[in-house]
Design a protein that fits this description.
By secondary structure, this protein is of the alpha+beta class. The chain folds into two domains: 6-255, no CATH class; 262-356, Jelly Rolls. It has helices at residues 53-60, 92-101, 118-125, 151-165, 174-177, 180-185, 188-193, 210-225, 244-255; strands at residues 6-13, 17-18, 41-46, 64-70, 76-82, 112-116, 129-134, 137-141, 262-270, 274-282, 287-294, 301-306, 313-316, 318-319, 324-331, 336-344, 348-356. The strands form three sheets. Strands 1, 2, 3, 4, 5, 6, 7 and 8 form an eight-stranded mixed beta sheet that branches. A hairpin with a 2-residue loop joins strand 7 and strand 8. Mean pLDDT is 85; it is low at 12-52.
């Protein structure tokens, strides 16, 4: 069953007018010694054209050659190449080697790659598309495209979407928000709260879509890994252009994916007097935080999650049983939080357990 939504690579016409009526892309200026910036190109989501079963079936039934292809790294990539492409683009091994040369993890083995003529790509991805990706299926042209966008550029960007598809970033979708370490380094949560980033928006706020910013960051990371240092940035807002720490976070997301939250536990014994106990929780990454507490039976205890200033209360844990309380919250830019437990004169041991990214 095809995915509900794919990303499409769509050409920009001369003068920066986006086919499909998207906003014009921005370009980071290259050094004076670098070659001229390529024509801008961009992605947009399309919930209909690329997802019609008949179109995908037509692609699968088209005249192609290839299949699972083992590269020099010993990894295998499933590549199908159109019989209509010229000889210099016709080798499945060429494309499999390109993919395994990119920074990647185990997700590479789940990729299905279709290398087609531009006409064939557009018959599946959409009239103005240069390529598309969805649910492990990557469709790209094996030839230069309008604006002299190379197939390699398209593959790098689209493989970034493949990376995100196989990463997690709870409570958000990594495909829309980007993987966890990169999204935290780029402050995506804070940008969204200030309406400066729009996850999943492939329309008027396309250039501020963090899912596309992640894919472009990955492309840049892959190019630098290949020794390409021209640093073109033609798709999304320059505000997303990655600093070195952000690129390092992206590389960690690729090579060492985040998988689960950490758990922090602590305990404190209260006497008969009114008292307050503070304990800190480090939160190096953005995401979901869960706080649980076990308190003495019949005791009057308030359990709160408090920001680093020890003043702003983010929430109070609520009763879930006779001796248990629980709170769920979200870390959004804070790198240290505090748990504050207040006893109103009830003695006994309080245990807290917090999970955080």
């Amino acid at each position: 069953m095809p995915p509900a939504s794919w990303t499409r690579l769509v050409a920009l016409l001369a003068g920066g007018v986006l086919v499909g009526a998207l906003v014009a892309a921005v370009v980071v200026q290259r050094p004076a010694t670098a070659a001229a910036t390529v024509e801008a190109w961009a992605l947009e989501a399309d919930g209909t054209s690329a997802t019609q079963p008949a179109k995908l079936a037509r692609l699968a039934a088209s005249a192609t050659h290839g299949g699972p292809t083992t590269t020099s790294t010993g990894e295998t990539v499933d590549v199908q190449v159109s019989d209509s492409l010229p000889a210099d683009a016709a080798s499945p091994l060429r494309w499999a080697e390109l993919v395994t040369s990119l920074p990647h993890g185990s997700e590479v083995s789940q990729l299905e790659m279709y290398v087609e003529t531009l006409d064939e790509v557009q018959s599946v991805c959409g009239t103005d598309a240069l390529g598309c990706y969805g649910d492990n299926q990557l469709i790209v042209p094996g030839e230069m495209t309008p604006g002299d966008v190379s197939p390699e550029e398209i593959v790098r960007h689209e493989y970034g979407h493949h990376i995100a598809f196989h990463r997690t970033n709870p409570p958000w979708d990594a495909s829309d928000w980007g993987p966890k370490r990169w999204a935290s380094a780029e402050n995506i949560c804070a940008l969204v709260s200030r309406k400066e980033a729009y996850p999943g928006d492939e329309g008027s706020n396309y250039t501020r879509n963090p899912g596309e910013a992640w894919a472009e960051t990955y492309r840049l990371l892959a190019e630098r890994s290949a020794g390409i240092t021209t640093a073109s940035w033609p798709i999304v807002s320059t505000s997303f252009f990655p600093s070195d720490p952000v690129l390092q976070a992206a590389q960690q997301d690729v090579l060492h994916p985040w998988t689960r939250a950490r758990t922090i536990s602590a305990a404190h014994v209260f006497g008969k007097r009114v008292g307050v106990w503070w304990t800190s929780v480090t939160t190096p990454l953005d995401g979901a935080v869960t706080l649980g507490a076990t308190v003495p039976a019949g005791g009057a205890f308030d359990v709160a999650l408090v920001s680093a200033n020890r003043k702003t209360v983010l929430g109070h844990a609520q009763w879930t049983g006779q001796r248990s309380k629980r709170l769920q919250s979200t870390v959004c830019g804070q790198r240290t939080l505090f748990v504050r437990v207040t006893s109103k004169g009830a003695p006994g041991r309080v245990r807290i357990s917090a999970t955080a990214p």
